[in-house]
Amino acid sequence: MKTLLTAIAVIAIANLLALLGFAGWLFGTGRIDSARLEKVREMFAETTSAQQAREAAEAAKADADLKAAEQARKDARPPMTATEQLAARVEATEIDRQRAERLRREISDLQKSLAERDAALEKSRADFIRQRDEFLQMRAEIVATEASDQFKKTLTVLEGLKPDQAKTTLKEIMTADAAKGVDQVVAYLNAMEERPRTKVIAEFIKEDPKVAADLLERLRTRGTQVSPPTESLASGQAADIK
Fold first, then answer.
1. Model-level pTM?
2. Cα–Cα distance measured from residue 170 to residue 158, given in angstroms and rounded to the nearest whole number
3. 89 and 30 co-located in one domain
């Protein structure tokens, strides 16, 4: 027991000497002095809650002092003269006028934008009606053409020809009528039986794959959409055929 007490005493004295040595080193190197010690004492003397309350009170007092100083400056101003009051009223009126003018411009721009949108919608509606009418007219023409006796007679003749002869005849139809020739040829091909139509298309492919591809595409979309003006397409096809 005595040995244990002796060991504890030795450790305590060693720690005390180490603390004294550390304190002496701090003072000796200028890292601490009496002023810093006082600051440390003051810092630990106040609790954190007390510090927060003090800082809040100081901030509130600073804000109140600032407001009081601003009010004092306002109170120190001399009252405006009649001329100054009139100038202030004129300035306020000018500001109101500019705001009203800006508001009128914004309203005018908005009305213009709405009018342009209405015009665009009206144009889209008119285009839709035009395309619908063109589509219905095209369907009616297709039905009328393919139902006519003359069309059926011509179709019978074409199906009776050899494939290369039928191709030559159809090509002549396209060349002779640049406006409607291509559509007429597509109508004949569409009405043909599968076997003769395939052979005629094969003859077109041998001579001009581009023309054949165009005819096949027209067959695929026949009666399902409104085509561009036939005249420009047909004239282009005629130029290719020649």
1. 0.35
2. 9
3. no
